[in-house]
Amino acid sequence: MRRTLGIQLMAFLFSVSCAEHVSPDGDRATSRLAIAVSALELETVSDACYNLIARNGAGDVVWDQTGICADQFGDGVAALSYVGSCDASQPQHTVTLELVGLYLGDDGTDPIDTDAYVNPCPVGDGCTQPATCVDNADVPVTFTLTVMRRASQGFFDIAVNFSDLFCSAKFDCKRDVDGVETPLLLAFDPSTGERVDTAVLGLACTGGPDSDTHVYLQNPVLDCGSPVVIDLGGAEAGNLFTSSEPAPSPLVQVMTFRGVELLESGGASADKIYFNVAFGVDFERATGPCTLSTTATVSSGPLEDFTTPAYSAYPVIEYQIPFVGPDADDFACVRWPLDGPDNGPDAGVATVYLDANDPRTFDVVVFQEPDGVLGFDTRCVGGDCASPAGLTFAGFDWYLGAPGQNCSQACADQGLACVDLVAANYVEASCSPADSICANFFPDLPCAADGDGPRVSYDYTYTGTEFEFHDPIQCRYRNWNYPAMTCSYSAGATVAHFCACE
Q1: Which of 14, 271, 380, 473 is exposed most, by the fewest CB atoms within 10 A?
Q2: pTM
Q3: SS3 content of the chain, % helix, strand, coil (to 5)
């Protein structure tokens, strides 16, 4: 049997210089770079691995990813995709591709003897192509092995500074080709091995030179009428779903890409982390409009309990994306740069500053270990977030979230999806155990009517930098169908929600 070996790689440019502050107006644009390698035909190849190195115009290594293999980042045979970042402040780049090895066998672990083929791009003497970064334009870079194929990826973003914290962010569903909005074909459908329409969430942040940067992200929530949480907590980057463990429709694949840039600022490490997510969609599986939402932030050093500190004006980036259109045959999004002009009150990628009563808790974090190795951690190891055991009540399975959590996060901690109580028209007639969920968890607590319940308030001490929680002190029952009380609603730092999960 003859297999086709190919790689299509894309890097979008996130430019955040640690030596300068970027205007909060986001007036510094970056560029697009699309990298493709055409097909190389070999017999019975079942996996292929590569190294990829990006260097800026000064010759500095922007990032260096080794051992990128098709089984983790592609179609499981030979073709793959990768999303990274590069330095737009030095526009003359070079991109180097090294073919590490080809593999046989059902599991792709049996290496093909290097004497059996001529490696066109060996390690240490890889294939290198120049690329000039042009603001807000696609710059194709093609490695020709046998038959040339152009990549169809392209991205741009705008940077904004958070005092001493710097982030770039974007969400792209299309690219502009000569004035025509063209799909991004990046992720693979694991059931067919074919590329599908792909949307890409981009995030790259630094806390400053040698600052111990930690980049946090909440698990995205896909809502096509019933919210579904996409768990990003896998230990390994790359493909999250397989044909036997499929993605929730209309998604067919979700890919994660994370790494550390190797650039320096003022002679010190810029300590810049990127965390990018690609969402592959099959519109034939779509049945109606969908939204996609998540929140991200950055800190210099780890956040305690994965939660933003309790003081005013802490910055986060909110992604509120109209994802699939009302006809369910195309994306509703095109390109959303951070704080771009097309942002609306419930749509776009926006900088939001939190106050002490509105903390955000995150699910995953990427950071750099002291030895330079990329670190990755999740808030709830094995789904254990110390929530009380679930109870079944009024036809729903209920869990108690942590203080400050919304129900999308609390249900995701249990490996479940949140039930929208507004859509379910869930109302509690009284605070008795027969009518309210809080009285079933805490039967001895006093109770009060509260439209944005059901929830429980906690006794706490505020130390000036954080909340120290003590005992629950009051149940609050849902005496009317408060319209804002959806899965993404959070009532504040000292209150925990009861969440219906499925």
Answers
A1: 473
A2: 0.59
A3: 5, 45, 50
